[in-house]
Amino acid sequence: LRPATDHLRTEARIRGSDGTSLLTGPPQCEQHSAFTRDPRLSRCLTFSRDGTLFGWCNGHSVSVVKSSDSSIVSTFDLPKTALLEFSPLNGVLVTWQPYTKAQDSPQGEANLQLWDLHSGQLIKALYQKKVDSWCPSWSDDEKISVRSVNNELHFYENNDFNSIANKLHMQKVSDFVLSPGGQPSKVAVYVPGSKGAPSFVRLYQYPVLGGPTAALANKSFFKADRVAMQWNKKASAVLVTASTEVDKTGASYYGEQTLHYLAVNGETALVQLPKNGPIYDVAWSPNSAEFCVVYGFMPAKATIFNLKCDPVFDFGTGPRNAAYYSPQGHILVLAGFGNLRGQMEVWDMKKYKQVSKPQAPDATHFSWCPDGEHVVTATCSPRLRVSNGYKIWHYTGSVLHKWDVAAGSELWEVRWQPFPEGSFPERPVKYQAAPSELGTTQAPPTQAYRPPALRHLPATPSAKLHEEEPPQNMRPGVSGEKSLSKSALKNQRKREAKKAAKQVNSPSEPEPQSDSVPITNSQSEPSSGDPEMDKKIKNIKKKLKAIEELKEQQVSGKVLQKNQLEKIQKEEQLLKELEELQI
Predict the structure, then answer these.
(1) Are 97 and 80 in contact (CB under 8 A)?
(2) Nearest to residue 89, comparing CAs of 61, 68, 63, 118?
């Protein structure tokens, strides 16, 4: 929430068993003077995208009010409404209620309804049985909207839902994501694999949806029961997290995940993650030029990648499973919620320097305030039915406001009021804790457990269960050399050792032009004088070249056959044989 000295003050909506209320602040958080708390149980609530409107359903009706003065905009007699959403320009209100059938109507009632907010009239009633992808997706200018109907995408133009302007029909479209921003609109679609065929994600630019060359980019992959697709803010690239329900190797309880990159210019890549294990979270930076991935068996790693999918900065290992960029992108919070202790690491993304390390135990919700200065953490039901409440923090670790629900009550949802982009400019990052009466909750240093009988004795160093990896800048030139994979680094060291050995044994010989093992045609190389040996060397180099090509295919995301993988495993042996023959 915004400090009182600024011209803008943000708001937060609180929904729980005691009703719905509105707060303004901080540093002093107080009830909104114009909004009267609704004591009835609220089924759902939402803000419009620009934050000027607020809507909620209390089990009797759906109400829409202005956020500034709580004056009524519209009221709808829809007591069963379970979900609400505003269109980007606040022209349409979408309501959804669970689909039911009646005896007099075997088809059931149209449970997805679109309302004109200005007139209060019904625009269109549609059938939407599943709650997944229940709401139509709009472009920011509302010129295009799209919804999934029976494994195909229906496109509408200018909020005319009585006529379908265009369709995208493929084998079985399972999921889609419309790009942010205005025109030209793009859409990412996912089709699951079947009968041995791979799954794939394709990018299209509206209205070019048909024909073999219509797709801007295409990425196919196996091992995908479901995917999560994320556009960056500039709509130039998509990250696809592909997941399987079961890891057949038995290495992970969470199944198996892979991360793929697709750009609208046609580039695709498999993001190489150096540590095995689940992918917990993927987050785009608001600058659209980099993204953060939290991955690997605990303690998890977190790494920043650029648009070439090269690592830029590694945060090392730690107890974390989520990443949250500030709206301005200048601060990143790495957090460990759920089955972890709630530790939050706050990082300055320009200096790659840690700002604070507060702790929010039992938190089930985290979100940034639009000002980029404050965050809220909350413990909500039904995830946890005890110790419900919320805290508002400054990113330096200070708790500015705290509220716990009364005994017997529950907190269901906490939501910040959005603001138009550019309302809150980026501020310099501070490292000194903001003043607060509630203080900070920096995580205390952990120590190994010692039995009472040994506590009077001097402490002795104990072996750690996991080796902790420190943060590391991965940019080429910063650490002195470009980051390489483990196998490439191992081969590089072998070549350097071989070169050093040759210089020691024959100091008078001129230094070779390249220290790498050439994997090319050896016609121009001097002969050893033994035709049989020359033939063997030539064959080995031919095999090594084929292995290099297979490794390049593997990096690009192609799934290799078993015999091809076996070839790659023989690289070490072939290099050793080549070295012996050349000596």
Answers:
(1) yes
(2) 118
Nearest to 262 by CA among 301, 221, 303, 323: 221
> 19, 42 in Cβ contact below 8 A?
yes
Name all domains of the chain by residue range, CATH numbers in brackets: 146-268 (no CATH), 271-442 (2.130.10.10), 540-582 (no CATH)
CA–CA separation, 286 and 519 (whole Å)? 43
DSSP string, 147-164: EEETTEEEEEETT-TTS-
* DSSP, residue by residue, 367-401: EE-TTSSEEEEEE-TTT--SS-EEEEEETTSBEEE
Q: DSSP of 433-494, one letter per residue?
A: PPP-SS-B-BPPPP-----GGGTTSPP-----SSPPPPPEE-STTTSSS----HHHHHHHHH
Q: What is the 3-state secondary structure (H, E, C) of 46-63?
A: EECCCCCEEEEECCCCEE
Nearest partner of 246 among 216, 281, 278, 294, judged by Cα: 278
User: Rounded to two decimals, what is the model's pTM?
Assistant: 0.73
The CA-atom distances, in angstroms, between 222 and each of 175, 186, 257 are: 17, 24, 11
Integer Cα distance of 259 and 570 in angstroms: 27
Amino acid letter for position 543:
K
Alpha carbon distance 318, 419 (integer Å): 33
Task: For residue 575, give the 3-state DSSP assignment.
Answer: helix
Residue 377: both structure tokens together: 């953490």
pLDDT in tens, 397-449: 888 888 888 888 888 888 888 988 888 888 988 887 776 666 666 655 566 66
| pLDDT tens digits along 358-381 | 888 888 999 998 888 899 999 988
